[in-house]
Sequence to fold (374 residues):
Amino acid sequence: MAGDAYELEVERQDATIILSVRGRVETASAQRLLNDISANLTNGAQKVVLDLSKVDYFDSGGGAVLIALRQRLEQRHATLEISGSTPAIDGFLDLVDQDALAHPPPPTVEPQESLVDRVGGAALAFLDDLRDLAVFTGQVVLGLRDAVLHPGRIRWRETWLYMEQTGLSGVPIVALISFLMGLITAFQAAVQLRQFGADIYIANLVGLSIVRELGPLMTAIIAAGRSGAAFAAEIGTMKVSEEVDAMRTMGFDETRFLVTPKVVALVLMLPCLTIISDLVGILGGLFVAVFGLDLPAIVYLRQTRIALSIWDVGSGIIKSVVFALLIAGVGCLRGFQASIGAESVGRTTTSAIVAGIFLIIVSDALFTVVFHYW
Fold:
């Protein structure tokens, strides 16, 4: 049989087939050569002798032909013998582990961890996290103490930048969410209060719920999704690119340079955002009272002023300060815990958001209990 680059001669001797290849055995004609050889294999053949003594050129395509031919013959319970091989062909075939290709090792099954191992690993990871949290909290406290005692040491240029990012840029989304929360709360309250002719007390319910709980809580959750994630991603990227290690090598205090400006900016801005959230939330309730319940705006505002006290507003601001410390601290801590690769940065950013929201809810519950009995 003739091809463009090779010639194949076939000779049969009982149960043995002798195949003589002449010319070039290369990648371009490898599949065609394999098909020609397979077409000349009979079911009764027990041995195939492949004569390569007249081959002028042999490349990786020829090696693939030999490997595929050996596998097909093994399926037919026949053997392959190569004769007339040159040192160049032998050297090329020695580079390939044909037995490993023909008989790949079975896939390894990793042993499953027992329940005790998983619980123990989770407990150790939790303890490591607590240790990192304690060390980082101490560093942040020391950094804030130096910032209070020596305000000139604060990197105010970066602090103003973070104040703009966490405060001014967050006003639209905080205002929108707060207005909708006031709107929803007023609508839900109107369904019940109108049955008793107590529409005016919608102002009490909306004002107290927004100022005490919903305003600080929703603002903190938004800040955790925006600022906490941004802090974690920024520091995480610096950690992955070894900028943090470079700062440590040069003797810079990473807490003062990276953490303190972020914490100070969020502590100053989150109470301001909370006040805006309170005002806009009350405005949402006013919108429902005026256009849905036909209450005069002056009556609604007067009832809101009667229902609220300075302590109600102050308790929300106190919460917002604590929430800001938690959000900024957790975001920076998760950023420092990033290891290698973009996947690690994404994982730490997600962890910062989840941990921040969890701590916000827990601390808000503690504040609620304390303020109730205080």
In short: Residues 139-373 form one domain. The two ends are 100 Å apart (CA to CA). The chain has 13 helices and four strands.
